[in-house]
Amino acid sequence: xxxxxxxxxxxxxxxxxxxxxxxxxxxxxxxxxxxxxxxxxxxxxxxxxxxxxxxxxxxxxxxxxxxxxxxxxxxxxxxxxxxxxxxxxxxxxxxxxxxxxxxxxxxxxxxxxxxxxxxxxxxxxxxxxxxxxxxxxxxxxxxxxxxxxxxxxxxxxxxxxxxxxxxxxxxxxxxxxxxxxxxxxxxxxxxxxxxxxxxxxxxxxxxxxxxxxxxxxxxxxxxxxxxxxxxxxxxxxxxxxxxxxxxxxxxxxxxxxxxxxxxxxxxxxxxxxxxxxxxxxxxxxxxxxxxxxxxxxxxxxxxxxxxxxxxxxxxxxxxxxxxxxxxxxxxxxxxxxxxxxxxxxxxxxxxxxxxxxxxxxxxxxxxxxxxxxxxxxxxxxxxxxxxxxxxxxxxxxxxxxxxxxxxxxxxxxxxxxxxxxxxxxxxxxxxxxxxxxxxxxxxxxxxxxxxx
Length: 452
Known about the structure:
The protein is an alpha+beta fold.
């Protein structure tokens, strides 16, 4: 959400990664990650430096200079990929200075071993030596710049942490602003196990009311916002792609009701619903519905761990979707924070209490609220503006599909199936259903190879 950083280190790897079937070399020491030497060099020195290294690899004599250069990169890399080491160096300026000095010393030793063209050498040999020396010089310049950036990064992080405590501490408890290694490590990935960057900070707000101001504070700090619930997604929606990111964990937003019969817009009779905050675990909603004699239709296989906010952001389904559809079909309303830190409520009008693609026209009312009005409290009865969306039911799904994951836009409907990219879900009201009087179970068995 509102990512201000160019993700060149990600796109470069995606475009230029290992598509040419080149070997995944691993000569850089201390590299316990899945990144190859090529990917590390691309991140630390840039793609041109890798091209130079590839040319020089075939001309190695003792390989000592290469090993010293790789040791420098390995030292930088192991710190960048270990928040515990980062915290240790942040807290120990003397130890940090010794590390930076050692890195520069190794590069100086490489510089001493350079072999410029010697007077009296054969013309061809002299030209080759001069060319090689120039390439080594380019590598050293790139490596020195990387060490300087590495050294400056600690001051940058230290200063940004101070600003973050000051800005975000006005909104939430200081214990909810987490820079510690454990919090950052546990929020670096989701069920994909795809690890790109450790987040700068993890935020764990206590209440829904804090959310808009937290988003505003993150924008002020220049942080990319990554919403996260249970972290069970398999699409990488909760994976930080830049170090200047704030993961907002909604798991403490766990207020909910039992089954309530409420009046929904355009429906004459009260409808059975359950209201939940975004951090409520899916199974808890199913249990609440069952206690009231109803069924909650959203039942992904991750129901014991996934959260309601993620169900909405992913438009989750499950086996009951055959009867009542996915999250989209069963939402009466939901509340979210927009990327500009304002409140937005989306209300379904004339709900058909079934699958949304069965209606000719699905109607929604969008109600916007000023999250930062004087006094700090939002009057939920007085939106600053409203608008209505009218969307043909047929556009929500391709014919024959229960869920079309290729259409993230969904005709501009906010929040649903956007994976947190257009806002942060904070709460929702769900329609629950009565099970049919009789249930039949069909067991299907499949034989053969799926590829046949």
